[in-house]
Amino acid sequence: RSLAALAYLVACGSLIAFSAYNYLLRRSTLAKVSTYAYVNPLVAIALGWAFAGELLTPRVVTAAALIIGSVALGLSAGLRREPRS
């Protein structure tokens, strides 16, 4: 299982995710692209719940809501400062 997890991290975490990140950097603003750092923990929570049987405690749900709210505030602030094209 450990080797399979390592192979997944190398393939998806390094190759695919880094390629996608570079693609987005060329086509979007830095404020929007940087939200990946906030969204990644939410994806990890969802995958852990769906595939590993991890619990969604009130603390985890509250943290997820705070993360989503932070991303929304950050994006809305970035959108107000960007000139319209």
Describe this structure in words.
- With 85 residues, the chain is mainly α.
- It has 4 helices and no strands.
- The longest helix has 26 residues, at 2-27.
- The radius of gyration is 16 Å and the shape is flat.
- The model has no long low-confidence stretch (mean pLDDT 84).
Secondary structure blueprint with pairings:
Blueprint: H1 2-27, H2 30-33, H3 36-52, H4 58-81
Helix pairs in contact: 3-4
For the structure shown, list the relevant keywords.
85 residues, mainly alpha, 4 helices, flat
Summarize the structure.
The chain is mostly helical and 85 residues long. Helix content is 84%, strand content 0%. It has 4 helices and no strands.
Distance between the termini: 49 Å
Q: How large is the share of residues in beta strands?
A: under 5%
Helix % is: over 70%
Task: Give the radius of gyration.
Answer: 16 Å
Largest sheet: number of strands, sense, barrel closure: none
SSE pattern, N- to C-terminal = HHHH
Number of strands: 0
SS summary, helix count? 4
- Secondary structure class reads mainly alpha
